[in-house]
Prevent-host-death protein (Cryobacterium algoritolerans), 139 residues
Amino acid sequence: MPLVADYKTFTDARSHLKEVFDATARGRTVTVQRDGQLSAVMPVDRLRTYFSRTVSPRVRVTREDGRTIALMDGRPFVSEGTDVNGALADLALSLREYAEDWDDRLESAPNHAGNWALVQLIKLSTDEQLLEWLERGGE
């Protein structure tokens, strides 16, 4: 059974924008079709929570020559600091820069295509949420 749009046109969704946002405020996902493409409008907090539970940071922290190293296993992110908090803060900054680069030019690169969910998590997270995700290893 094909997906059915809540709003079959962008114009219809635009004329009912208040209802669209009221529905998402209640936690509902609303779909809108435009030029044959179906898109979803949903609460950011629910989407962010989903990504934080399903995207694993796989952070490993080690000490080397008086420095604390934080790296993400299987991903090209390594940061360092004088302690764990400093290394994770530097890692979070690296992730923010990566998300910007991903939007600008890395999105279509084959070796970065698998990082879509990670980038969305970074973009939807506050600095505090991103650090908590790194520290707790996801959920």
